[in-house]
Amino acid sequence: MAQAAHTLKSPKPAAHGVKRYTGLMDWITTVDHKKIAILYLWAGGFFFGIGGIEALLIRWQLIKPMNDFVDAQTFNELITMHGTTMIFLGVMPIIFALMNAVIPLQIGARDVAFPFLNALGFWTFLFGGLLLNLSWLMGGAPDAGWTSYTPLSGAAYSGTHGVDFYTIGLQIAGLGTLIGGINFLATIITMRAPGMSFMRLPMFAWTTFITSAIILFAFPAITVGLVLLTFDRILGANFFVPGGGGSPVLWQHIFWIFGHPEVYILILPAFGMISEVIPTFARKRLFGYSSMVFATILIAFLGFMVWAHHMFTTGLGPVANALFAVSTMLIAVPTGIKIFNWLFTLWGGSVRFTTPNLFASGFIPTFTMGGVTGVMLASAPADFQFHDTYFVVAHFHYVIVGGLVLGLFAGLHYWWPKMFGRMLSETLGKWTFWTFIIGFHLTFFVQHFLGLMGMQRRVFTYLPNQHFDTLNLVSTIGAGLMGLGMLFFLANVWITSRRPPDAGSDPWEDGRTLEWSIPSPPPEYNFKQTPLVRGLDALWKEKAAGNKGMMPAEPIGRIHMPSATPLPFLMSAGIFIAGLGFMFSRDDFASRLVGFLFNNYIVTGLGLLIAFGAMLMRSLYDDHGWHIEPEELEGR
Amino acid sequence: MTTTHAEPVHGGLPHEPEKATAEGRNKVLAFWLFLGGEAVLFGTLFATFLALRGQTNEGPSANELFHLPLVAAATFLLLVSSLTSVFAIQAMHRNRPKLLRNWLLVTVALGACFLGLEIYEFSEYVRHEEFGMTTSAFSSAFYTLVGFHGAHVAFGIVWISLLIGQLAYKGLTVVTAPKIYVSAMYWHFIDVVWVFIFTVVYLLGKVG
Q1: Where is this region: Disordered (chain B) (predicted)?
Q2: Nearest CA to CA, how far is A197 from chain B (Å)?
């Protein structure tokens, strides 16, 4: 099956015998990591917007005591969907967007190890997220909290399909995350440019590597947990049903064995982004690079043995509580190392406070505050007071919003010119920063005190004259300000997109890593010649030596590219249909035909047929890809 | 840039055809990683089973239910199939596609026999012992753990059968070799999982 197309010498890409799509089909079929990054960004941004609107509705309900803006049932659905959407469908995809946009460039690769799987991971995430959010239109959203504790989430107490949307939607979205994790592990292990040893990897590549390892070992646990809960609810199994001999505490263990590593999946990439932004704008190499690497590894390792600190009040006993308290406090050590390293990087640098660096500098004290309340919560006896109060809500928003979201803003402003070829407006960026961070502290700082004063989380309203009124009002005003900050950011994106491309290859002028050595946005093949890496901060090293750019590690030659394909989209659509079919397989339908199709698993079977059929096509028809010829690279 | 042409290497295959191309090496590496995730998946299922195996809810217990001779026969079949998949990979390394195909056929046949025994076992429990998914927490955990493994075996049978078909019309190339190699890795993995199921579910069920 030698490819005739390969031997054709023609400067036009169309002559390579491979179908190139345009318009919408281009986006559906793309396997280019840079385009997949943009897909992740828009889809993640869309869900982030939904989660943000849910947050504003929650805050509006709590603006005054005994408010009746929404009822208790709707409030439960809002808090469940806010947490679930933000974590799984909002921030994780935006993390994946930046990983996709940056990691292959940073390690000097032309693509990820598995471009096809990369697309598949995106589409399964998107279809899972759509399934979960369809619940709003199809009989009510999940309402058992983002942790979905049993027996509340079991069939006995959650009779609607809400929790089914949660279990099956997250299952499908989780599959995409797992695929993405394996892909980035393989990419960083095998696709590094010559000279790019592990201890020369940029910090963001390191944290992506470690994060992917955590995904690989944490997500299968929630996969099993969701399967068990699905079986309980749909097949009548007894895993978490006490009447049948099941154990509700088992769900808590499985959920948090996944759930705690999940918070490190969220925060470690933010650590990586901060570690790229700060050295660039301090114009100094990252202080304590190797200690940063080992701190990251240590955090990931410890992250797997602290899950029961979410369960101090479950009644595991003093020995278990003490052990988990100590292991939790240990995490403060590597995290503290990181905080000091960032401070020492800034110290003595010639610092420029651009928008990315404002976000990065704002991140350090904000995240530290979240870390300090984390150590407070790690103390098991004190946790009996804090548990399920607004103190906990304040803590995790400080680490997730004050940590991760500020990190994402830093990363987005920093790499936006590399992704889109246009610099975001600095003026609007600074407006975004100040409104967002002031709004953030206004919203969540007061919640510490609300919690200490006894306000429970997840209550849909509260009585007047408990000293809750003013602080809740302040918190709601802050949430509005954060929303305003988001609007500034969206305005910035919109205005920037109307301007002609203006970003050169190194638009911040102090870029240190390989992505700043190639045009913005990079060509389809990233590197015309694979670069030779001669040290940490590869580009900076060449600049310091007076060289114009990277030294190539190979002569100019033909570049092999993977073909675009609609199969990942079809496969994910099939899984989506199968999930929907399975969810409604035990329902009564008004129409006999629809009932026949669902109750006999015909819809499920059809979905699986599409998914496995697409898999079969992928296996049977080899993708030989296509080549870009040297003449094209030279622009002839 | 590494070339990724699919045509057979003239003058025979390289010694380890599964690792001859960058794609092949990536595939093998990623499959090891995937198996790491699978290990966590089965680990969680085992932990669930161990936590719930005493909760029989007045239904049949493990000791009443299991017949070791049947399970021992199934174990024997699956362990031998793992051995035959090693023979298949050895044939692949010696570039003998016909022998490779034959050993893969034996592997698939043994896997199918194993699966047949498992289906027979499950149907006996459901029909004669009134032991179904909903009977107790123990039954749910049993069917889910052993059923997950069974589903993996079924997937492996279909997968390897399709690869036998591909081998017939694509031949043994540096594209098909990594596919066969990772399917053998998968087959060994589900074999190892079965060793744990045999010990933790069946043997422990008889004595515990």
Answers
A1: 1-20
A2: 18
Phi, psi at residue B60, to the nearest 5°? -60, 145
Q: What are phi and psi of A628, to 5 degrees?
A: -100, 130
Q: How far apart are CA A576 and CA A606, in angstroms?
A: 11
Pairing verdict, β A531-532 and A626-628: unpaired
What CA–CA distance (Å, rounded) separates A254 from A248? 10
Interface contact flag, A238 B139, Cβ < 8 Å: yes
**Nearest Cβ partner of A244 from B29, B36, B57?**
B57
- Range 163-182 of B in CB contact (< 8 A) with A: 166, 170, 175, 179
pTM given for the model: 0.94
- Residues of B within 8 A of A190 (CB-CB) are 22, 25-26, 29
Percent of chain A with pLDDT over 70: 97
Asked if the C-beta of B161 comes within 8 angstroms of chain A's C-beta atoms, the answer is no
Q: How does pLDDT run across A491-518, given as a tens digit for each residue?
A: 999 999 999 999 999 999 999 999 999 9
Q: Do A619 and B162 touch (CB under 8 A)?
A: yes
Neighbours of A249 (CB within 10 A): 17
Write out chain B residues lying below 8 Å of A250, CB-based: 48, 51-52
Chain A residue with the nearest C-alpha to that of B167: A620
Sort residue B102 into left (φ over 0), alpha (ψ -120 to 50) or beta.
alpha
Average pLDDT over every residue of A26-33: 95
Backbone angles phi, psi at A552, to 5 degrees: -75, 150
Q: Which of B122, B4, B140, B112 is nearest to B67 (CA)?
A: B122
Q: Do A616 and B139 touch (CB under 8 A)?
A: no
Tokens of B22: 């960058």
- What's the pLDDT tens digit per position in B4-48? 444 444 557 888 888 888 999 999 999 999 999 999 999 999 999
- Taking only the tens place, the pLDDT of each residue in B58-76 is 999 999 999 999 999 999 9
Q: Which of B10, B25, B53, B140 to mutate to test the interface with A (most CBs of A within 10 A)?
A: B140
pLDDT of residue A20: 75
Q: Which of B38, B61, B134, B179 to mutate to test the interface with A (most CBs of A within 10 A)?
A: B134
Cβ distance A278 to A202 under 8 Å? no
Is the separation of the CB atoms in A121 and A92 below 8 Å? Answer: no
3-state secondary structure A131-164: HHHHCCCCCCCCCCCCCCCCCCCCCCCCCCCHHH
* Nearest CB to B138; choose among A221, A245, A622: A245
Q: Give every CB contact of residue A318 below 8 A, 6+ residues apart in sequence.
A: A380
Contact call for B140 and A231, based on CB within 8 A: yes
